[in-house]
């Protein structure tokens, strides 16, 4: 079935798969868009021609249009897809059109169908340069369709309110607010629905978001009605919090036989937190989310990983020049949508039939000094309840994380736990008290309705040890909830050592408090007490600064994950799969997100998995979900949070799809939300650098007054910007200073950047010498295995190719491909081999050895398919494209090379280069320009390392020259002439041609 998608973008699919070829070209898609909106009445040929080819002579425009129609029909495979002669229309019997379905549903009052069909603004992100009339038409159509959509949303919301379906009303008003977050009328309607749904705190927080947006976007005061309504809600919230709880009258249903050690239900003791002997412990504060952040996005670890770098740490800030390559193009309106999620509580979608509960404070009233037992019980109960079917439980880790947001973590009363539980989407809170009783432990528990404050049930359990107490308490709670008890004991999925568990629980508190050193000590002690305690090893891996030790701990946790509960097992496996580049990450993350939607880990890992696979747009949705669930974490710049990670990945997502302006906007919003965050500031500086605006990045750095980048790293960042700007002399001086005075690590970094600078200048012999000087000072343990070259040698090998020595270059790439570091996973080994064999194929192709190139294709494909990174799986298309180009099948080469491109600007830019050359040979210069331009908006290293920017400028000049863009061609030729003024003799002839051609073009003006 053919389908034309116009809402949220513009594309044609057949049976769900995008059509490439002729139907991927913008002007042909624009023809389809115009025909689709013409409806059954059709649209005159002349109007289409005047709209899309306004500046072309009439006869030529008609000829071009006829060719376009022919290409569309040929690609679709049916001439009847476009009907008519003078008035043209699309054949809706052969082609489904989402806009038609949307308008039909709206006209028939099938409002829910209309809303479900609307995937985004009309032709979102689609532009035709030079077609002003078309752009104006798009704006008119977009406005009309948006009005229809927002009207449908508002009507659905009102109908839901009339039916007392307040949850549905909230959902509709949220979607409406995302379209126009500055509309006071919509803000009030959403707040009213949230309050009616029992989520008054969310209503108050939405008012705060509205106020921030009005101030940031319009520099205006907020609407008085919004402020007045928010104030009334705050008064009601304070009054409700101060009101005493109603008397408890517990009526329990008949229960099955209690677990060993349990006694009958009793009236609850005074609420936890009311007794005079509270422990007064500092509430746990999150520093980093317990999910491994996939920071190693460089495809082939070109720059060496130093011994003191942590390859698996969630927030290990890499220097900007080792940054995890960017991703994702999405509607720019999404940046505003993010703000509507900011500072909003969790909106985890839990169905009404499945209760969501959280475990709160267990107050210890015993004479014993072992107060940590109560803390252990909190975590044990949450873990054990989470194993039961028919109930959803907020993990203890999530509660600790949210408590850090409530009063800066200083409030450890039951009220603070209740607020955190509401933030996590829970409907009930379990809290209790712990006593000594004749040599046994007695635990009194109660279930509190978080909406009304009423106590639903109370239980009292006695047992000889903390694990039996947790098992018995779980059995009573589960029976009262009407769910099924988990099999076995909580000790089966944690540890049988009470000492190990107390140490683990204290480590968890320290971890979320941001005290990584203390957390590491507690987790390592717990693992030493019980070497089979999977979670202790997992959290120890997160909190260590030793990269190799972190990997050892993580691998140990992975092997022991079968001994953990389902939620913790999935969390461990997600972190391991992300760190080790396993392709199973997406499946694990999806399972985690579906089974435990109230937890951040699943949604964040799913976003990361989609990014690494190359599904950039798809990744935005789970990352936005994280923002919605954890945005309150943005209040604390000192501690990490899921929302911080989500923003970081969203910046990357926009950047990788060559939407750096959108990436900048997200980064700037992050800085506004977290003005003291080093990660936010780094994200903005990096984005500005990649936009070629190093001067603006410098201004941001100076204005921040923060030592966010250390001196040597700052010089390297500045040098890379100067290289982009063509100021090579200044860049080289800065790098020479670092190389002369820095540490060994800093010297290696400086030599690396200096070699890149020299390459841009065509001083290849000096660049080669610099890379060898760099290799001479590498620590002995940098090479992966004996007989294999270090990954850092890729730059040396690439320079050998550029010097016209492809055979030794291929041998060096092959040597790197054989490397294997200690504890490398199979996907990590495979992706290193895949990339370096791809480089080797390029070198062999340059040597004219097509037989050897052909032999490598299957190996590259097999190895790439082992990786969790989407672009690794596309590498074989590049090698196939080279082989077809060598056989002079440029059409075939273009098709293969296009499939190899995952990111247009942060992908393997050698692919852009070879694709453009093939297009030029086919006399398709405009397409060559379009594929080369993004390559100049990438980095100078990682997968962008394998063709110099000067060569890109040279080829782009030739493409513009062929396309008739004389001014642009001359400008790029002049870049080449300036950059190669001191180039090796090998390049002087090319420089002379560029200079000659620039002169010809200048004189022709």
Rg of Cα set: 31 Å
Count of discrete alpha- or pi-helical segments spanning 4 or more residues = 42
Q: Give me the CATH superfamily of the largest domain.
A: Tetratricopeptide repeat domain
Share of β-strand residues? 5-15%
Number of domains: 5
Give, in spatial order, the strands making up the sheet with the most strands.
9-8-10-11-12
**Helix content, binned percent:** 55-70%
Task: Kindly name the structural category.
Answer: alpha/beta
Low-confidence stretches: 244-352
Overall geometry comes to globular
CATH topology-level name of the largest domain: Serine Threonine Protein Phosphatase 5, Tetratricopeptide repeat
Total strands: the figure is 12
Task: Tell me which CATH architecture of the largest domain applies here.
Answer: Alpha Horseshoe
Q: Quote the average pLDDT.
A: 80
Largest sheet geometry: 5 strands, mixed
Q: State the CATH class of the largest domain.
A: Mainly Alpha
Q: Could you please describe the fold and organization of this structure?
A:
The chain is of the alpha/beta class. The chain folds into 5 domains: 2-148, Arc Repressor Mutant, subunit A (Orthogonal Bundle); 164-242, Serine Threonine Protein Phosphatase 5, Tetratricopeptide repeat; 259-282 and 349-480, Rossmann fold, CATH 3.40.50; 290-315 and 495-593, Serine Threonine Protein Phosphatase 5, Tetratricopeptide repeat (Alpha Horseshoe); 797-1003, Tetratricopeptide repeat domain (Serine Threonine Protein Phosphatase 5, Tetratricopeptide repeat), CATH 1.25.40. Strand 1 and strand 2 form a beta hairpin. Helix 12 (372-385) crosses helix 16 (498-512), helix 36 (875-886) packs parallel to helix 38 (909-921) and helix 38 packs parallel to helix 40.
């Amino acid at each position: 079935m053919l389908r034309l998608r116009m809402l949220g973008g513009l594309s044609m699919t057949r049976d769900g798969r995008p059509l490439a070829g002729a139907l991927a070209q913008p002007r042909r898609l624009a023809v389809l868009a115009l025909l689709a909106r013409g409806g059954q009445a059709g649209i005159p040929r002349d109007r289409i021609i005047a709209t899309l080819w306004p500046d072309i002579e009439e006869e030529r425009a008609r000829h071009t249009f006829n060719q376009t129609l022919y290409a569309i029909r040929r690609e679709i495979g049916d001439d009847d897809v476009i009907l008519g002669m003078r008035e043209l229309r699309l054949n809706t019997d052969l082609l489904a059109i989402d806009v038609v379905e949307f308008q039909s549903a709206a006209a028939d009052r099938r409002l829910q169908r209309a809303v479900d069909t609307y995937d985004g603004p009309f032709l979102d992100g689609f532009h035709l340069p030079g077609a002003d009339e078309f752009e104006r038409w798009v704006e008119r159509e977009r406005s009309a369709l948006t009005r229809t959509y927002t009207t449908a949303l508002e009507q659905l919301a009102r109908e839901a309110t009339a039916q007392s379906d307040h949850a549905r009303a909230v959902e509709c008003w949220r979607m409406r607010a995302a379209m126009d977050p500055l509309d006071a009328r919509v803000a009030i309607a959403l707040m009213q629905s949230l309050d009616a749904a029992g989520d008054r705190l969310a209503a108050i927080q939405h008012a705060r978001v509205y106020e921030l947006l009005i101030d940031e976007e319009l520099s205006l005061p907020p609407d008085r009605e919004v402020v007045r309504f928010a104030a009334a809600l705050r008064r009601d919230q304070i009054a409700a919090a101060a009101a005493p709880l109603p008397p408890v009258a517990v009526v329990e249903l008949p229960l099955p036989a209690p677990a060993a050690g349990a006694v009958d239900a009793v009236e609850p003791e005074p609420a936890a937190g009311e007794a005079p002997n509270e422990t007064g412990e500092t509430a746990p504060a999150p520093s980093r989310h317990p999910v491994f952040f996939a920071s190693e996005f460089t495809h082939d670890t070109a720059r060496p990983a130093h011994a003191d770098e942590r390859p698996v740490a969630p927030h290990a800030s890499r220097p900007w020049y080792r940054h995890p390559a960017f991703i994702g193009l999405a509607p720019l309106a999404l940046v505003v949508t993010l703000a509507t999620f900011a500072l909003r509580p969790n909106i985890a979608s839990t169905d009404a039939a499945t209760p969501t509960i959280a475990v709160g404070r267990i107050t210890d009233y015993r004479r014993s000094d072992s107060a940590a037992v109560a803390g252990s019980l909190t975590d044990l109960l949450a873990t054990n309840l989470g194993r039961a079917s028919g109930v959803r439980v907020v993990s203890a880790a999530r509660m600790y994380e949210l408590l850090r947001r409530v009063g800066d973590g200083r409030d450890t009363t039951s009220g603070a736990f209740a607020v955190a539980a509401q933030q996590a989407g829970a409907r009930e809170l379990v809290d209790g008290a712990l006593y000594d009783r004749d040599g046994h432990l007695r635990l009194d528990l109660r279930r509190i309705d978080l909406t009304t404050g009423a106590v639903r049930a109370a239980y009292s359990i006695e047992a000889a040890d903390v694990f039996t107490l947790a098992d018995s308490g779980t059995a009573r709670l589960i029976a009262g909830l009407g769910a099924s008890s988990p099999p076995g004991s909580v000790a089966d999925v944690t540890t049988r050592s009470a000492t190990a568990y107390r140490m683990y629980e204290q480590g968890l508190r320290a971890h979320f408090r941001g005290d990584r050193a203390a957390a590491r000590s507690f987790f390592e002690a717990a693992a030493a007490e019980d070497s089979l305690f999977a979670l202790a090893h997992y959290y120890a891996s997160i909190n260590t600064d030793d990269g190799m030790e972190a990997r050892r701990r993580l691998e140990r946790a992975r092997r022991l994950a079968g001994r953990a509960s389902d939620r913790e097992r999935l969390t461990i496996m997600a972190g391991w799969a992300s760190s080790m580049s396993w392709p199973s990450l997406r499946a694990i993350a999806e399972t985690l997100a579906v089974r435990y939607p109230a937890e951040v880990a699943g949604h964040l890992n799913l976003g990361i998995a989609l990014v690494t696979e190359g599904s950039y747009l798809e990744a935005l949705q789970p990352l936005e979900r994280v923002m919605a669930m954890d945005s309150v974490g943005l209040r604390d710049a000192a501690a990490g949070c899921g929302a911080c990670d989500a923003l970081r990945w969203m910046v990357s997502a926009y950047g990788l799809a060559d939407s750096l302006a959108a990436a900048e906007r997200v980064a700037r919003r992050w800085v506004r939300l977290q003005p003291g965050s080093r990660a936010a500031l780094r994200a903005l500086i990096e984005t500005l650098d990649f936009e070629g605006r190093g001067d603006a990045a410098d201004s941001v750095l100076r204005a921040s007054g923060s030592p966010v980048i250390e001196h040597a790293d700052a010089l390297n960042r500045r040098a890379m910007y100067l290289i982009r700007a063509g100021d090579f002399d200044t860049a080289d001086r800065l790098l020479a200073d670092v190389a002369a005075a820095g540490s060994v690590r800093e010297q290696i970094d400086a030599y690396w950047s200096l070699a890149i600078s020299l390459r841009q200048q065509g001083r290849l012999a000096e660049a080669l010498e610099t890379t060898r000087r760099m290799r001479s000072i590498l620590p002995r343990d940098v090479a992966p295995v004996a007989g294999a070259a270090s990954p850092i040698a890729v730059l040396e090998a690439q320079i050998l190719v550029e010097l016209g020595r492809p055979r030794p270059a291929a041998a060096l790439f092959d040597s790197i491909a054989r490397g294997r570091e200690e504890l490398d996973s199979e996907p990590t080994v495979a992706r290193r081999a895949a990339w370096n064999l791809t480089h080797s194929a390029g070198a062999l192709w340059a040597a004219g050895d097509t037989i050897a190139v052909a032999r490598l294709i299957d190996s590259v494909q097999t190895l790439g398919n082992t990786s969790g990174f989407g672009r690794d799986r596309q590498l074989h298309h590049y090698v196939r494209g080279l082989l077809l180009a060598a056989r002079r099948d440029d059409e075939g080469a273009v098709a293969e090379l296009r499939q190899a491109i995952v990111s247009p600007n942060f992908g393997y830019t050698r692919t852009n280069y070879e694709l453009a050359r093939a297009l030029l040979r086919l006399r398709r210069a405009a397409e060559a320009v379009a594929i080369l331009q993004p390559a100049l908006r990438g980095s100078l290293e990682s997968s962008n390392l394998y063709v110099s920017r000067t060569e890109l400028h040279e080829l782009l000049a030739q493409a513009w020259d062929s396309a008739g863009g004389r001014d642009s061609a001359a400008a790029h030729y002049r870049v080449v002439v300036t950059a190669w003024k001191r180039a090796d003799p090998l390049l002087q002839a090319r420089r002379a041609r560029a200079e000659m051609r620039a002169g010809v073009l200048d004189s022709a003006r």
